[in-house]
Amino acid sequence: MLIKILFFAVVGLLIYKFFGGKFPKMGRSPQEKKLEDDTLVECETCHTYVTVKESIIVNGKYYCSRECTP
After folding, report:
1. Domain of residue 45, residue span
2. Partners of 57 in the beta sheet?
3. Geometric angle at alpha carbon 38, from 58 and 26, rounded to 5°
4. pLDDT digits (tens, 9 = 90+) for 24-53
5. What sign has the CA pseudo-torsion 12, 14, 15, 16?
6. What is d(CA 14, CA 21) in angstroms, rounded to the nearest whole number?
């Protein structure tokens, strides 16, 4: 009886995957990724805070504008 249940579970799983079923991926959710883009970083020159998306990165350091870059 247990073997039949396991057999049908495996067959069901294979059918699910064959027809495009997707398992939840391990890792960060889109909301967590968005938070990363919205993280504030400090400008090395003027010490103002800007988001990672808006910042300019030079040699691994964050700057708020071209005027602040070396």
Report:
1. 2-68
2. 62
3. 105
4. 666 666 655 655 667 899 999 999 999 988
5. positive
6. 9
Task: Say how many CA atoms lie within 13 Å of 47 toward its Cβ.
Answer: 0
12/5 Cα distance (integer angstroms): 10
Take residue 60 and report the two structure tokens written for it. 């691994």
Measured in residues, the chain has a length of 70
DSSP one-letter string for 18-33: HTT--PPPSS--HHHH
The DSSP bridge pattern shows strands 49-51 and 40-42 to be: antiparallel
- Eight-state DSSP code of residue 27: S
- The answer, as to whether pTM is greater than 0.85, is no
CB-neighbour burial class of residue 50 (10 A; exposed 0-12, middle 13-18, buried 19+): middle
Please name the residue that has the structure tokens 């805070």: 49
Q: How many domains are there within the chain?
A: 1
